[in-house]
Amino acid sequence: MKHLLSALETRLASSPTPLALELPSGTRLGAAHPSVVLRFHETAGLAALAGGEVGSVGVAMVEGRVDFEGRVRDLMAAAAGLLQSDPVRGSAHWWSQAMARARSMAQHTMARDARQVQFHYDLSDDFYALWLDPRRVYSCAYYRHPGMSLTQAQDAKLDHICRKLDLRPGERFLDIGAGWGALLLHAAEHYAVEAMGITLSRNQHAHVRQLIADRGLQGRVRIELCDYRQLRNEEPFDKVASVGMFEHVGRAQMGPYFEAVRDLLRPGGLLLNHGITSAGVDNAPLGAGMGDFIEKYIFPGGELLHVSTVLHDMARAGLEMVDTENLRPHYARTLWAWSDALEARLPEAERILTAQTDAVQGARALRAYRLYLAGSAMGFERGWMALHQMLAVRPDGDLSSGSMRGAQSGYPFIRDYMYR
């Protein structure tokens, strides 16, 4: 124990954020005037802290074995300072990659994917409404101008996607993983497309159906409760968007996923795939226990791939990438906006979550989300994760189609159209 306390004092002295620890005995270590205080109710988590396993400390916090005082932003700065290695640079041997692929195949059956999606997205609509924008856009915003609010940046993101897809009146548009319907309705109301969305979340499905009815869009917009692997459409879609969904697909299913999307898309049509990617090229889970934390409390079954791996699988499926954009800092700002909104309404959030379950489970879920939102913001800031929008076409083989010879699609092969 003496050696452990000495190691902790050394770590605390080098912390970029004034940090103090309170041990179960009441003894205090660290800064005299701390920005953050960690109170340990048992000694088990001290070794994890000394070893830089911040994800394991996060688990202890969610389970109520460690409490903290201070701003969650300061807590994240302290956590980053405690890391002993780069969490995205771990080595990955061929056998560990093979084992990960086997686990991925087992994890991503249709039944299991549905349960895993519902675990996260069906937590509580009222809870999400506390900290998301009014349309409940639960994906990276697009801060076209620095002074934008979250709501303005989410509106800009919806339009950015529609412009990249060059949506035209009367086109058939599919939104895979439609969330609470913001993109689906924006595309229908502003671009006059015939829009269809799919989701595995029962709550989101019910919410979007009500929005469609309220806005009188039943003839042009519909939402289905189904897996992308179940979707059978006699007439292909002109344009397809997948926003914040392919993180749930799994590395073992990524090839079949893009093949399924290709089959849903008409020759010459466009796909916009928007999602979180890993900074580590070996695609191992985020280190220091952080990946395990996300798997346990937030996104069971979620898997992040490096953008190069995604583009490889996309190409093998017969889709040609025509434009890729990294919005990583935009997601950091989005997540901090969500985190700040949740931090401002903690008592209300706990009441909502407690009503959904019980006092113990509600408090646990709230602690998990506080750490998840702020921790993810930190991860995007520090480059541990990225957010890529990948625009691809299904070539039609016609060298004379499109506005430029050899385009083999409607894509103009210039970016000007996106910003007019």
Automatic annotation (TrEMBL):
The keyword Signal does not apply. Keywords: Lipid metabolism, Methyltransferase, S-adenosyl-L-methionine, Transferase. It comes from the Bacteria. GO terms for molecular function: methyltransferase activity. Pfam families: CMAS. GO terms for biological process: lipid biosynthetic process; methylation. The keyword Transferase applies. Belongs to the CFA/CMAS family. This is Class I SAM-dependent methyltransferase. It comes from Paenacidovorax monticola.
